[in-house]
Design goal:
about 190 residues, mainly alpha, coiled coil
Length: about 190
């Protein structure tokens, strides 16, 4: 760029603080062209990290047992053909990449095939695939937090039911409200008190 500096300062921090007046002056002198004026960075330099690539390759080449990797490569389970289904080619290129549903179903069927192939193999290796009946997962929220959430939900529902009852009550149409809704409202009001 052969343009003179817009301000009298040579520091980088002052160059970034160009005022509107300086930009207008530079444009009127013909130093700037109309449009967006930004400094373009040069092309991105390719990094050839040979040691990092070799380290990744060594990770891939690690000879672990299959139980440690659990990798499997299979083609999808064939689609269940209905009375109006189209004949399916075994070629994987038949999945339209623009059709999200078709693509998701392809992933689903491939996962199905993997499960059908891997479960017998895991059972053969005596790897447990089901949780014990007495297994309890750790809760993300404590019982106290869950009680607060329940109370807020009850309160919200009670307020909603109560607000729907008031217009009927004031109009003298209380008999048209279902008895069950009134009982539920009374129970919720008793819980929130």
């Amino acid at each position: 760029m052969d343009t003179p500096p817009l301000s009298g300062s040579d520091s980088d921090s002052d160059d970034s603080l160009v005022t509107d007046r300086e930009l207008q002056d530079a444009f009127s002198r013909g130093l700037l062209k109309p449009g967006l004026n930004v400094v373009l960075e040069g092309p991105k330099k390719a990094v050839n990290d040979v040691s990092g690539l070799k380290q990744c390759l060594a990770e891939f080449k690690r000879d672990l047992e299959w139980v440690e990797r659990l990798d499997v490569t299979l083609s999808p389970v064939p689609e269940v053909s209905g009375p109006q289904s189209t004949p399916q080619n075994k070629d994987q290129k038949t999945v339209d990449p623009e059709d999200d549903f078709q693509r998701e179903m392809s992933f689903y069927r491939q996962a199905q095939a993997a499960v059908l192939a891997v479960l017998p193999r895991l059972h053969q290796l005596r790897v447990p695939t089901k949780r014990p009946s007495d297994y309890f997962a750790e809760m993300a929220k404590s019982d106290q937090q869950m009680q607060k959430v329940r109370n807020k939900g009850f309160l919200w529902k009670a307020k909603a039911l109560h607000s729907s009852v008031i217009p009927y009550h004031s109009a003298g149409l209380l008999g048209s409200i279902k008895r069950q809704e009134l009982m539920e409202l009374m129970e919720l009001m008793a819980l929130t008190d």
